[in-house]
């Protein structure tokens, strides 16, 4: 029993161990103060107290009837008990005031209705602890209950000798009534023991009102088993305890059918909102009626750049986040794993996988969106594709590079012999053209082999600014020839490990590309600067930018937008950057394109001050 009494409850409720003694003491003091008025105005006060009990019982029945299908099985049974108690207690009042009479003494007839009501209550409470369940039609269930209880009430009135006397004037409760009351107390006690054996934790928390009701009912029934007269202190005390008993039974029904379900719904809503707003996946709720945004989570705002004020209450057309064809697909019904593109507030295009579902909230239909951003994933996949292609190119080059060079060298040698032959002077232009084309083919193969190099790249400490300075006369000459200019913007930077020949090739490729993209009178800017520990090389042209459809293919071997390009220049640059443990990227727009090469210094070499190092590509 101490397990039940000491079971912890929520902070807003008293512990049963403290509340039960408080009830006993307060009802005792109330009865002592109330006894004179109870004795002098018994009919009025008795009818008032019983009326309160009937009101609580009938209200509990109405709640159980209204929420019959959703209520727990115990609440359905308690509804039956409350209906029975309301009928028997009504008959009890009517007989005690003389409205219902027969050959019995008034209080004896009233006592029969009393014990019948308490006995039904005890049996119903015991059945609830046994897990008895029924799921019949609620109207049939309560109609049968009302009919049976009404027939029993009629039988008590019509057949006075159906039970032995329960109350004698001047004596009080008879032995028969005492036995019935003790039986009721025994059933209540069995119910309490069953709750102790069956329920624990959260389940017990839902039973605590019933436990308190039973604990209050037991002393009340013991009092009514021995009370001397209806106007005595014991009778007043028993009726005060009965009000408490009914109140806690009613509170048990009210809590289990209204308060706890509402709390659970509120907790479920809180968990949903917590999951909704803290999820790293972009989520949104949109009204099906007018396609206005009802709510979005923080991930949605972070990825799109919008604020809540920009989105909430606006239509999808006003936000223009999704394309029209995507809206048409969504309008036809829920979608799953639909790969889409969406716009940010800055009009950047990103990629995502979209899942939608139709949900009901407060009787209204809404679209629930989940966007899984895959922009970075797709970028990595494209990078892997590029690297796979480079690997394939490397395997091809390793097999055929030198084999192709050998016959080219032979052909070029014979063409040179023919060019020195006086008889073939008239073909001199053709021979020199063929030699130049062979040299061009040989240069492509050389660049091809450089792209696929897997051998060690010998690096030593160099100043990137000095390498650029040494190349400037050559670069300026080419730029002046094309009526363009090159503007150096070199900031002080430390020396880093470089392969000078490869860096020269990278610079020539990037600057030549910049000059090709720049119109006459334009300029290409070469800039170096430090960014934290990294050294950055930036080459900016004044062209019209790289077309969007070409941006994803930048760096792929043999892809070029030039009429006479080989498509190996940028691929070679990416490979050189990779061998130097550098990251290469670009930004482009209508005002030009800037390529960045970010070199990361190697700490180990700095600490040991080595002058050269072979790093495997």
Lay out the secondary structure.
Blueprint: H1 2-5, H2 16-40, H3 42-66, H4 73-96, H5 106-129, H6 138-158, E1 167-168, E2 172-173, H7 175-198, H8 201-226, H9 233-278, E3 282-287, E4 293-296, H10 298-304, H11 308-311, H12 316-319, H13 324-331, E5 338-343, E6 349-361, E7 364-373, H14 375-419, H15 428-451, E8 456-462, H16 464-481, E9 485-490, E10 496-498, H17 500-517, E11 523-531, E12 534-540, H18 548-551, H19 569-579, E13 582-589, E14 592-599, H20 603-608, E15 612-616
Parallel strand pairs: 9-11
Antiparallel strand pairs: 1-2, 3-4, 3-7, 5-6, 6-7, 8-10, 8-15, 11-12, 12-14, 13-14
Organism: Heliobacterium chlorum
Keywords: ATP-binding, Kinase, Membrane, Nucleotide-binding, Phosphoprotein, Transferase, Transmembrane, Transmembrane helix, Two-component regulatory system
Protein name: histidine kinase
Which strand order do you get reading across the main beta sheet?
4-3-7-6-5
Report how far apart the termini are. 78 Å
Oligomer description: single chain
User: Helicity, in percent?
Assistant: 55-70%
Rg: 47 Å
- SSE-based structural type: alpha+beta
Continuous helix count? 20
Residue stretches low in confidence (pLDDT < 50, at least 5 long) are: 1-14, 604-617
Task: Outline the biggest β-sheet.
Answer: 5 strands, antiparallel
Name the average pLDDT.
Answer: 80
Strand content: 15-25%
> Count of DSSP E strands?
15
Shape: rod-shaped
């Amino acid at each position: 029993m101490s397990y039940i009494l000491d079971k912890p409850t929520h902070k807003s409720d008293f512990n049963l161990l403290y509340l039960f003694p408080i009830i006993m003491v307060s009802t005792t003091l109330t009865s002592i103060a109330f006894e004179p008025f109870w004795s002098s105005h018994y009919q009025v006060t008795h009818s008032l107290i019983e009326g309160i009990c009937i009101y609580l019982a009938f209200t509990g029945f109405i709640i159980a009837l209204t929420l019959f299908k959703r209520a727990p099985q115990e609440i359905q049974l308690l509804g039956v008990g409350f209906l029975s108690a309301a009928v028997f207690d009504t008959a009890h009042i009517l007989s005690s005031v003389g409205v219902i009479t027969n050959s019995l003494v008034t209080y004896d007839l009233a006592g029969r209705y009393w014990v019948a009501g308490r006995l039904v209550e005890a049996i119903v409470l015991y059945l609830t602890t046994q897990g008895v369940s029924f799921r019949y039609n609620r109207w049939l269930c309560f109609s049968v209950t009302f009919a049976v209880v009404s027939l029993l009430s009629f039988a008590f009135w019509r057949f006075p000798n159906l039970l032995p006397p329960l109350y004698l004037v001047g004596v009080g409760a008879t032995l028969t009534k005492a036995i019935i009351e003790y039986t009721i107390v025994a059933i209540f006690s069995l119910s309490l023991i069953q709750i102790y054996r069956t329920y624990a934790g959260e389940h017990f928390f839902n039973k605590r009102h019933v436990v308190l009701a039973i604990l209050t009912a037991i002393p009340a029934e013991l009092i009514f088993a021995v009370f001397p007269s209806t106007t005595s202190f014991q009778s007043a005390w028993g009726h005060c305890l009965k009000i408490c008993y009914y109140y806690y039974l009613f509170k048990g029904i009210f809590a289990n059918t209204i308060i706890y379900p509402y709390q659970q719904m509120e907790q479920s809503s809180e968990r949903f909102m917590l999951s909704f707003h803290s999820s790293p996946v972009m989520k949104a709720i949109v009204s099906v009626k007018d396609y206005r945004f009802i709510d979005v989570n923080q991930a949605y705002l972070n990825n799109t750049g919008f604020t809540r004020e920009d989105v909430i209450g606006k239509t999808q057309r006003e936000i223009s986040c999704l394309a029209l064809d995507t809206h048409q697909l969504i309008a036809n019904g829920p979608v799953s794993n639909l790969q889409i593109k969406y716009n940010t507030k800055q009009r950047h295009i990103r990629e995502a996988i979209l899942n939608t579902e139709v949900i009901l909230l407060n009787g209204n239909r809404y679209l629930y969106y989940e966007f899984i951003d895959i922009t970075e994933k797709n970028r990595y996949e494209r990078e892997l594709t590029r690297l796979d292609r480079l690997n394939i190119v490397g395997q091809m080059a390793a097999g055929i590079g030198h084999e192709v060079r050998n016959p080219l060298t032979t052909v070029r040698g014979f063409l040179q012999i023919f060019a020195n032959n006086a008889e073939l002077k008239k073909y001199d232009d053709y021979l020199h053209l063929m030699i130049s084309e062979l040299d061009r083919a040989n240069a492509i193969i050389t660049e091809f082999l450089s792209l696929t190099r897997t051998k060690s790249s010998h690096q030593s400490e160099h100043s990137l600014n000095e390498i650029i300075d040494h190349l400037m006369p050559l670069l300026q000459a080419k730029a002046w020839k094309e009526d363009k200019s090159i503007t150096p913007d070199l900031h002080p930077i430390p020396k880093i490990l470089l392969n000078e020949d490869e860096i020269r090739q990278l610079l020539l490729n990037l600057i030549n590309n910049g000059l090709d993209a720049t119109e006459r009178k334009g300029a290409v800017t070469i800039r170096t600067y430090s960014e934290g520990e990294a050294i950055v090389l930036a080459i900016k042209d004044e062209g019209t930018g790289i077309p969007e459809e070409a941006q994803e293919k930048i760096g792929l071997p043999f892809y070029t937008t030039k009429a006479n390009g080989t498509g190996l220049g940028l691929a070679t640059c990416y490979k050189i950057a990779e061998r130097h443990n550098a990251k290469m990227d670009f930004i482009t727009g209508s005002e030009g394109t800037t390529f960045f090469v970010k070199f990361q210094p190697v700490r180990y070499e700095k600490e040991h001050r080595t002058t050269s190092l072979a790093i495997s590509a």
